[in-house]
Design brief:
236 residues; alpha/beta
Length: 236
Amino acid sequence: MTSKATAESVRILAGDAELVGDLSVPDSALGLVVFAHGSGSGRRSSRNQSVAAALNDRGFATLLFDLLTTDEVAIDEVTRHLRFDIGFLATRLVAAVDWTKTQASIAHLPLGLFGASTGAAAALVAAASRPERVSAVVSRGGRPDLAVKILDHVRAATLLLVGGEDTEVIALNQFALRRLQPPKELILVQRATHLFEEPGTLEEVSRFAASWFERYLATPASSSTRQAPDPIDEIC
């Protein structure tokens, strides 16, 4: 189906930082998907924008936002350390998840996370930190192994999408899959390498992601699980 989406620029406060985002909300949205971009990327990632547009067409609201401020991006271009600081990135993502509850147009929507590369690890930490809010996670070419300390705390339904030719990342995702709680699944996108640049492969990612969110955003994450230390503290 195709659903018309209303788009707007938003500002999200995360501690002392103000993060810029793009929010798109279709009529009668089925749910909300918050994106966590990967290493050295941002909300204007062409791949994430492509997936977001496909999700909008399937009736999902989407939020793409920059995990780093402009000044932090400039620093990270030199040091390359913030993009791998999973605890830091997860804190920013949790701030965005909390922000969604303050916005009348989306506060009522079931919420999922879509993470790419290191953003996938941040998405899993955020899901473990907000089990009552995050119902599903999809990882595209992600590094869930970077969140290994908290994988057994994740209660959100998790789909790991990896390029069928991305041998090293396949192994890292297989490692993480064994530690995640069900429901969980690992799908290899045939002919795809790490960046899903091959014709038709990103469309496959969008199709799998939309189907996962349609299946699992209808069921809120359980809030009755055992108490655990804050996953962000564990990952730092």
